[in-house]
Design goal:
alpha/beta; 4-stranded mixed sheet; globular; VOC family protein
């Protein structure tokens, strides 16, 4: 079996699919595709099989409960300051301020999205 990164897909719980989709479109510029999967409403993040990385969905249903506790998903951003400004403009909350890790070459921060989930962002430090 070929060795790969172990995570292949994620789902972010939401209460209001339209509100959550608007939040992520505005903050990150993502486009989404709506689907019903196993009787649950989903809006899928962009994905191309030929590109590296994983994709996922915003998911609404009785088994999906937004939370600041539990798994934290990291989104890459080219400009962490601009992304955090967009989060605040969409009524998100900064939970962990921008922090530089020079040893590993990245900047991270965490925020609460429109649904109450803890989400992290990472910017690679240009050397």
């Amino acid at each position: 079996m070929a060795k790969t990164n172990p995570v292949i897909y994620f789902e972010i719980p939401v209460n209001d699919l339209n509100r959550a989709e608007n939040f992520y479109k505005t903050v990150f510029g993502f486009s989404f595709e709506r689907e019903i999967i196993d009787h649950y409403e989903m809006t899928l993040f962009p994905f191309e099989d030929t590109r590296s990385g994983i994709s996922g969905a915003l998911a609404k249903g009785d088994v999906y409960k937004p939370s600041k506790e539990g798994v934290i998903i990291y989104f890459r951003t080219a400009n962490i300051d601009l992304t955090l400004q967009k989060v605040l403009a969409q009524n998100g909350t900064i939970l962990y301020p921008k922090t530089i890790n020079e040893n590993y070459g990245f900047i991270v921060a965490e925020f609460q999205d429109s649904e109450g989930n803890r989400i992290a962002i990472q910017e690679i430090i240009k050397k």
